[in-house]
Amino acid sequence: MNQRRMILTIVWTLFLDAGLAVGAYLIARGFGTSMFAALLIGTVVAGLRAAYVIIRRREVDAFAIFMIITFGIGLLLSLVTGSARFLLAKDAISSAISGLIFLLTLAVGKPMMFHLAQRFGATDEGERSRWSGLWQSHRGFRSLFRFLTVIWAVGFLVEAAVKLILVALLPVDTMAPILPFFTPVLLTGLVIWTVRTSALAQQRLRQSATVSTAG
């Protein structure tokens, strides 16, 4: 699969994983529902998507669970009342928590980017077993996914900081309609960078294996 097709595939899958829930949330808000009700709807949609993925793959999917946790945290935050500016700031808090979850996976089990990449690079049981073997035996393989996870975590944390600064400086009416577009733009940029970085890493790994075999 070439890079362009891979990027489109990942963006489409991320839309299904995250965009459906975000879209449900935005539509609900557009119809005038409360933030809590809209987040509840988004959480339910994220849960249904996760259930579909888990049933189709016959295993628990880490990224799908991550989306449920993200919306669940947003649901809890929505219970905290405050000014309209504070409600916008809570969106930034959710982004920051997403970044912290990515960092947490570096210390517990496999990093989040391993699970996300496995959705596209290991489509059957045999390939997933091979990935597990590479994780155990290949230091470069582990380092790649840890590096990717750190970059994604930093991306979420920087996004959260930018959101907080803009929410503090700009009028609420200016920020409210543009805030939901921050994360899709960030994810698209991260996906493009990740695919290109992974392709270069795979090329280096193949060259290393060729040199080792020749030696």
Automatic annotation (TrEMBL):
Keywords: Membrane, Transmembrane, Transmembrane helix. The keyword NAD does not apply. The chain crosses the membrane at residues 7-28, 34-55, 62-80, 92-109, 144-169, 175-195. The keyword Transmembrane applies. It comes from the Bacteria. This is Intracellular septation protein A.
